[in-house]
Amino acid sequence: MSAKRRNPRPLDTPRLEEMALAYVARFATTQAKLLAYLQRKLRERGWEGDERPALEALVERYAELGYVDDESWARMKAGSLLRRGYGARRVSEALGQAGVADEVRCEMQPDEAQAREAALALARRRRLGPFARDEVDRSLREKHLAAMLRAGHRLDIARAIIEADGIEAAENWVAEAGEDV
Q: Which sign does the torsion angle of CA 111, 114, 120, 123 carry?
């Protein structure tokens, strides 16, 4: 005998706030992502009142209380993506998709040293350029360059890593940017 799946009750203000609080307690999130989550739950479950809930006011209140902080979330996400080897363009795209404001996205752009370190991390992780196991011919070098560009790196940075004479040369090139800071 199978258990019947009961339909969830429509949301009211206390249940909506409880869901929002549970969401921000469980996930690091942005204001836009919290708003999208609450809108989805309203579509799924419906509303138990005559007037529509003030979702934007709820999200704003949570931001004022510090439960949701777009800037700290963006800093965490940008750092994570850079450590994984993604470039400035991909970092900016990810932050934009999460609803982070343009001015915060601009603040999170990596400096030259961080951009070079991210490119080196990607090359090391994906065995591109000087980290390749086999001899790199022209065709393979173009594929490696394309992979760096898809990861969001600038062309000049991607070329410098892919065309480096060896691992030590690539690491020295990255270290040079750190010395300039």
A: negative
Closest CA to 10 of 48, 67, 54: 48
- The residues, any chain, with a CB within 8 Å of residue 103's CB and separated by 6 or more, are none
pLDDT on residue 49: 79
Backbone dihedral angles phi then psi of residue 47, each to the nearest 5 degrees: -125, 140
Euclidean distance between CA atoms 46 and 127, whole angstroms? 50
Kindly give, in sequence order, each residue whose CB lies less than 8 Å from that of residue 53, ignoring residues fewer than 6 positions away: 11, 13, 16, 42, 47
Q: What is the pTM of this model?
A: 0.84
Burial of 7 (0-12, 13-18, 19+ CB in 10 A): exposed
Residue at 156: amino acid letter: D
